Amino acid sequence: MASRSARAGIVFVVSVVALLVGGCFAGGHAAGAPDHPTIPVGKSSQSIKWDGADRTFNVYRPPGLTDPAPLVVMLHGGYGDGDQAERSYHWDTEADKGHFLVAYPDGRGRAWNAGSCCGMPSQTNLDDVGFIAAVVSAIERQIPVDPARVYATGMSNGAMMSLRLACETDIFAAIAPVAGTLVTDCSRARPTSVLQIHGTADASVPYNGGPGKALKRNGSPRVDGLPVPSVTATWRTIDNCGPPTSTTAGAVTAETAGCPDGRTVELISVADAGHQWPGSVRGPILERLRLPEPSTALDATDTIWQFFSQHRR
To answer: Name one GO cellular component term (predicted).
Structure first.
């Protein structure tokens, strides 16, 4: 779990104004009311000083937001960034409908330290858990956020990072990894609602586990993680859930388990879908990495928000 001392003294920049953030933090959340100008409507870009480097993130605030607001942290995949995630997965449109904030952090070297993956952040053991906790705290210092409705989702390496966040922090009411697997120790996780979405034909993060196909010929990391059903089984154990029930509609199979205190652990499998965010836009990164066209059998973003909206911490 990210330490209290590691989160103190965050310096962040809102637009062109440099602001020093003080005060106390508990469980990754800033204490007290916001003490800086509110986040503007629409998209804004921010920076915080973290671990000796400037780290950046975007925030989207929809019109007509009611305080205190839910917050979704959207983590891009490997080779992506916050701008790419904002363009590809239509979370801004979903936020307009659902009235919540969205944060799009940028990984160092276009990757996240999710454990044994990926890239430079993993190789240097970068404290990305602490960085994302600091992003949440920085947003809370500017606008009222409902601490019971903070969520994390991500694609691929970002999905793995969302799983690590749930394993090591108590910030998030629910997470929703897409096309990812567990590549870190999760033995001390607290109960958390989890929705996992995965294509059964994913060659990069295989549904049945084991080494995946490298995304690039120049030595990009090959993910070697748990089978996807084993990840949700792990979370059913953590959450002390009952046995799952399964339903199938066309290409989409949902395996859902109810758990104490209203939590849920769910796996949605999309038949014959590859390494993708179902319902997303095929952008330059997918084309460059020669990844398949996203499935239209499921709108992952809308499905995830419907799941999040049912869960509170």
So the answer is: extracellular region
Can you name the residues that pair with 256 across neighbouring β-strands?
245, 266
What digits encode the pLDDT tens for the residues 197-245? 999 999 999 999 988 887 654 445 568 889 999 999 999 999 999 999 9
| CA–CA dist 267, 66 (Å, integer) | 31
Give the integer Cα–Cα distance in Å for 17 and 38.
13
| 227 three-state secondary structure | coil
Q: For the chain, how far is it from start to end, CA to CA, in angstroms?
A: 17
* 3-class secondary-structure state, position 11: strand
Amino acid (1-letter code) at residue 279: G
User: What's the sign of the alpha-carbon dihedral 118, 78, 90, 268?
Assistant: negative
Q: Quick one: DSSP state of residue 186?
A: -
Q: Topology of domain 42-211+223-310, per CATH?
A: Rossmann fold (3.40.50)
Rounded distance, CA 267 to CA 252, Å? 10
The structure tokens 């066209």 sit at: 293
Q: What is the widest separation between alpha-carbon atoms in the chain?
A: 53
* Average pLDDT estimate for 88-93: 97
| Strand 101-105 versus strand 69-75 pairing type | parallel
* pLDDT, position 301: 98
Tokens of 307: 């799941």
Contact residues for 86 (Cβ-Cβ < 8 A; gap 6+): 43, 58, 60, 74, 92, 102, 104
pTM of the model: 0.87
Q: Is the pLDDT of residue 111 over 80?
A: yes
Instruction: Give backbone dihedrals phi and psi of 63, rounded to 5 degrees, phi first.
Output: -65, 150
Residue whose pair of structure tokens reads 């002390």 in the numeric block = 240
